[in-house]
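Summary for the steering committee. The consortium agreed at its last meeting that each partner would contribute one worked example illustrating the joint modelling workflow. Our contribution is presented below. We chose a case with several input lines so that the handling of multiple components could be demonstrated. No manual editing was applied between input and output; the record is shown as generated.
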Amino acid sequence: MSVLIYAENSKGKLKKSSFEAASYAYSVANMLNTDAYAISIGEVSNEELEKLAKYGIKKILTVNTAQMHSFVNQAYASVIAEAAKSLSSDVVVLSATFSGKALAPRLAVKLQAAYVDGAISLPTNDASFTVRKGAFSGKAFADVSMSVANKVIAINPNSFPIAENAQPAVVEAFAPSVKDTDFRTIVKEIIQAVDKVSLPEAEIVVSAGRGLKGPENWGMIEELADLLGAATACSKPVSDAHWRPHSEHVGQTGIAVSPNLYIAIGISGAIQHLAGVSSSKVIVVINKDPEAPFFKAADYGIVGDAFEVVPKLIAAVKEFKATHA
Amino acid sequence: MKVLVCISNVPDTTTKINFNDDKTVFNATGVQFIINPYDEIALTRALELTEAQGGTVTVINIGDPSTDVTIRKALAIGATDAVRINSVARDAFFVATQIAAYAKDQGFDLILTGRESIDYNGAQVASLLGEMLDLPSISILKSLQIEGGTATLEREIEGGKEVITCPLPLVASASEGMAEPRIPNMRGIMSARTKPLTVVEPVEVPNFQHIIKFEKPESRGQVKLVNADEVNKLVDLLHSEAKAI
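What follows is the complete predicted structure of the assembly.
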């Protein structure tokens, strides 16, 4: 018995979500009176992997062969399944990132495991092993009991604090037996904006809607986001009108986010939009219509025109940063 | 090209979600059901591809006879024929097992799903099907092109995208931007009535997990309003009270 995490990396650096998974796995291992291990796949240095020790991981397996350098969900699922079997791990934890979501169901089939995607709680400490997840696109929660021996849990990014539980750890090379048919998909190119905070992982999100009147007015939204180290987002009408890319659309049929702070500017707060932001910790709404439904779902609000309030907010954040630097 | 599109019957996006008294079952009274929006995108892209290159599009749904309305809508949009597995969808593993059992000897070149259903948000069926049918699977597509038996796909990743090639057959899940959903026209609606809808009995599926309770998020309470002339106060509150910056 043990708990295994899949430690995901981006360009050789472990993702923040991997440390969240490590912290989560450490808590689960403690509950089950066992140890937490990790498997890393891809080109990651041992020194980088040793960072996992700080979060309670005792052993880190690494698969760093050239064949494994780019992500193929089928092959990665095979490797993780084999690692879980060799370490007798009955619980596998990973982050519900785009890649995590793509490989975890395949892993669950291989391990004949119960699988919960987007977990937002630790499992209950009883035989029902119940984990809470979002349902109805943020409009509700579902408590899912995992009733078989093996479990795979994909945790929601930004839902668990990173907790330090430092202890010594060993890094070991792992040589899995993968099949050629695991590599039918070939990654040709990875296109990534280097200077932008990614929306699903962002701790602060600055989002704007039709109240901005047109794509040419997004400069102040981007400026505010840059100042706060935030990702930019938008409402559905904005992406439908191609003012902003679909990848920025937050809501029931777009991306669900759970940042520490969600700032909604010129968004009225349709039920579909609220669904995608309901798990944000703090919500600020700026809207000139005092009757906008979003104010009923917000923690803080300013009734005012975005074109007047946002420049003032930018100035106020600059002043705040100058005094708190 | 033979395409299978998996469609889910879900509450309309404007639905206020409620549960029965012991919070174990979704209360569907008075709820309007629709094709899961992401599945509709998958369906539209499948139609675009088969219209350009020839082929058929079969839609499959796991549901009781009440879901026929949603299936007929998919036929009105343009699907060639439909299959309904006569059962109630229990969870993603159940759904994928039913679809895999049907699809395994049908020779589909391409199986598409939506990125996730907007009710249970599992985002699982495409990857489950890939594993069950031993096919490659690519999740959360931004685009899909097919030429000479090879697909070129763009997959969403944090802060960007991956460009992937893969030989057919394969399974993939669709997301926004891949196609613009179509509104069925009168001819489509008329022809949908007579298109074949085959009903297939379900296979047995082991139960690995179950939902024991639903809950709705707690309300945030009263909003704290800050005057538009005192924006500094908002920044102070976000720092000292909310600890968000």
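Residues 2-215 of chain B form a domain with the Rossmann fold fold (CATH 3.40.50.620). Chain B touches chain A through 80 residues (CB under 8 Å).
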